[in-house]
Each structure stands twice: as structure tokens, then as C-alpha cells.
């Protein structure tokens, strides 16, 4: 079956610390993968998307970066977190027939 | 850039009442997808509308795509407490990216 895994579920990090969030998908090959951020009580903003290994497109300028080292692995990173990086980070995978499938998300609080 | 707005922002209803959320775009929508996000959860895909004027039903949920493809709506008949959550519309642009609407948060009182 096709599944998407995202971890950790929650994270509290101090300002200036690095960040690494990982997302992996199973049961498919060469998926389109996406990172979204949702501020508290707000909509979803597309941060990055990738159509293949090493291919990353950034949608908005920011303090974050993304990488795709393997076909089914998508990583969101930061060298130095800012308070404004707090939010709910969601990895998503575009399926052929059923819209986007989202991971369970990571709630990041930068303190 | 394109903006996808939803109204209302919040809606509180008594269980059994109907609910409708409206999705409006500043530009022509290509395909509309609808998602539901339960409190504390992640968005879950509900349906996709492609054709102008299209209407689709899923049990108590009715989805409609406007004739001019600039708006869409989701109507829930006889709400239940399990309908609680935030409903998002999303436009598919550049064939493989989603721009999400602002969302409508639904609260259902028993």
C-alpha cells in the first residue's frame, strides 16, 4: 500500500538551532513531493516541491531549504531557526487519482 | 498572484443544520480540490472537480464547481459532530501544485 511517513510529530527548538525534518513515502516510485507550512489557525503555504532526486523548487524566499537525496525521501532543513519558523509542517505526495496525500505533520515551536 | 478566498471563516451550527462554505478565486480555477482537516490533524483529500458546472455528491456532502470556474462550494446536509473541522478548497495550478484557500472552520454543537 502507499503510505507517507513524517517525523517527528512535535519539536521544540531554540532560536538559532538547526532543523531537519524528514518525510518518506512507500509504495510508489518517482513521486512529486511537497512541503507545506501552516501557521496556527491559518491556511497552507507551499514551501518547496520536488519532481525527482536532486530537483527542488522553492515557492517563497525564506530561512528554510529542502533536499531530495533519494527518490522517496524529502528533507526540510534550516541552519538557524527563527521565531517566525514556528508552525505546522506538512509533507505531501501527489497521487494520480486521489489528490494529495499528506503526512501527519510536525508541529514546530521555536522558542 | 492568485488568491483563493473562502467564506465564511468560521461557522457554528447546531447538529442537524446544514452548512455551506464558498470558495472564490481572483482568477479562473483550473481544477478544484476539497480537503478536510480535523482539529490537530492533517488535511485529507475529499474530491476533485474539473468541469465547469460540475456537481458531485458524497453522502451528505455536495460539491459544486461554478459555470465560470471562478468559484466552488461545499454543502453539508444535516451536519453531525463528526463533520467538525476546517474545510479547504485548493486550486491545482501548473498541473502539479496546489494553492489552498483560506479555509472555513466548522463547529457543530450537539
Strand content of chain A: over 45%
> What's the alpha carbon Rg of chain A, rounded to whole Å?
13 Å
Arithmetic mean pLDDT of chain A: 92
The separation of the N and C termini of chain A measures 38 Å
Please tally the β strands of chain A and state the result.
11
Number of helices of chain B: 0
**Derived structural class of chain A:** mainly beta
* Inertia-based shape of chain A: globular
Indicate the multimeric state: heterodimer
Q: Give average pLDDT of chain B, whole number.
A: 94
The stretches of 5 or more residues of chain B where confidence is low (pLDDT under 50) are: none
Give start-end ranges of low-pLDDT stretches of chain A: none
SSE topology string of chain A = EEEEEEEEEEE
Class by helix and strand content of chain B? mainly beta
H/E element order of chain B: EEEEEEEEEEE
Helix content of chain A: under 10%
How far is it from the N-terminal to the C-terminal residue of chain B, by CA?
41 Å
Biggest pleated-sheet summary of chain B: 6 strands, mixed
Q: From the alpha carbons, calculate the radius of gyration of chain B and give it in angstroms.
A: 13 Å
Largest sheet of chain A: 7 strands, mixed
Strand content of chain B: over 45%
Amino acid at each position: 500500500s502507499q503510505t507517507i511517513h513524517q517525523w517527528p510529530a512535535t519539536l521544540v527548538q531554540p532560536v538559532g538551532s538547526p532543523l531537519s525534518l524528514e518525510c518518506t513515502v512507500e509504495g510508489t516510485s518517482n513521486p512529486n513531493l511537497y512541503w507545506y507550512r501552516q501557521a496556527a489557525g491559518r491556511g497552507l503555504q507551499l514551501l518547496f516541491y520536488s519532481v525527482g532526486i536532486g530537483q527542488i523548487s522553492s515557492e517563497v524566499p525564506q530561512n528554510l531549504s529542502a533536499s531530495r537525496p533519494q527518490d522517496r525521501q524529502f528533507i526540510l532543513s534550516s541552519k538557524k531557526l527563527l521565531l517566525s519558523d514556528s508552525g505546522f509542517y506538512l509533507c505531501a505526495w501527489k497521487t494520480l487519482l486521489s489528490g494529495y496525500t499528506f503526512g501527519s505533520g510536525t508541529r514546530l515551536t521555536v522558542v | 498572484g492568485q488568491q483563493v478566498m473562502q467564506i465564511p471563516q468560521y461557522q457554528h451550527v447546531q447538529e442537524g443544520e446544514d452548512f455551506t462554505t464558498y470558495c472564490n478565486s481572483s482568477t479562473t480555477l483550473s481544477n478544484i480540490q476539497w480537503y478536510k482537516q480535523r482539529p490537530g490533524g492533517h488535511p485529507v483529500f475529499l474530491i476533485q472537480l474539473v468541469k465547469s458546472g460540475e456537481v458531485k455528491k458524497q453522502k451528505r456532502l455536495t460539491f459544486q464547481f461554478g459555470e465560470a470556474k471562478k468559484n466552488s462550494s461545499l454543502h453539508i446536509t444535516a451536519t453531525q459532530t463528526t463533520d467538525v473541522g476546517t474545510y479547504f478548497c485548493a486550486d491545482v495550478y501548473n498541473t502539479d501544485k496546489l494553492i489552498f484557500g483560506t479555509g472555513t472552520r466548522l463547529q457543530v454543537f450537539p
